[in-house]
């Protein structure tokens, strides 16, 4: 019994060391690839600006909902926004190591993603008990991230859902294999996803039930693990419940109303799913089938150990996640051209790639042929070096310059024409709402009053940034417009979005 306890403590110590090393390594890599956050002030626009307005409430512990949705509601919870608010507070307000508030938010998201990815690797190691197999999976993960842009370096919530979904798969497989001490991790990852997007109100509970039903007897026997997981769940559920109580009818009724819609054509839904496995439908379908078949065969020939049991569960959990995503694409996605809705599902092929690479190293490492002795080390080193090389050079791990370069000049213009009065912003073209939010936020951070005059933008901001009757009576009015003649002297708010054709610069025009 003593030997078993000692081995368990040793394994836990090694797992903790691996988590710290992987987390710190990934975080450092992401910081190096995004080191301009320490030198260049970022003036966020559009959705990031809308979220930054919410982080202001989060910094005062007043925020109870998530970010806005284009279909007319807010997503379930504020977890991501509290994390971004913490980054803004720590790195900008307290430590003063970044030149703008949003830069601190970016660092917080990078740290979160590094920790989530490290968590997935640590769970894998706890079952395989092979450093080489785990590092091979880490190398494959880096290669994958280097080939898929913005998955772990963007604050945009659809991208931010990728890492927790990957962790959900690995933690869910561990729980399904009977290791309930990872239940709280599964709950944490699933709760992050639910807070991030309403679609996970269906996907996460169903996947959790599929994992937990076979373990229902263990749930009663291992009450400590269940209580810890329940505490984590309560932390995430509390703001949702409070919002429903304090702001009736809340958001849940809107989700239910949205859910009453006709399904998509099955073939179109299938195409939506496979696009995250390959660039074209046939390529994606072939890669999905090959990857599922190949990892299935690898798992079957593994020795009958804990590693095989976990690998088998991870395969099944990934298959279940793929099926659930397919069902949601059929019944839940309202616009199949809105690919961002499924960005999180990039975790599905990555989970199988990590499973296959680690299983292959374990399988080869268990052979006794002399000529195979060095093959696992060579394969692991190749994957890790290749992954680090690609991740260190690929632009995929560097956040897009989607901010506004013209904000400082626009602020000078606004100050010169406002003469100390509140700054009232309205949009002449719909696309200018992104710039209006950016300017209102930037003015507010300078300690001055700025607000939006048009009620149609209320969903995308907070009440503090909507004009009151007093503002309308005494403020200085400005119009933001894209694609119209600009008066002499009016500043142009240059937009650095990587799709400039979709986001032309706005002009700021003083009306009085």
From TrEMBL:
Transmembrane segments: 15-32, 100-121, 127-145, 157-177, 183-213, 225-242, 282-302, 314-331, 337-364, 371-391
Keywords tagged on the record: Membrane, Transmembrane, Transmembrane helix
The keyword Transmembrane belongs to this UniProt entry's keyword annotation: yes
Entry keyword annotation includes Membrane: yes
Record protein name field: Glycosyltransferase RgtA/B/C/D-like domain-containing protein
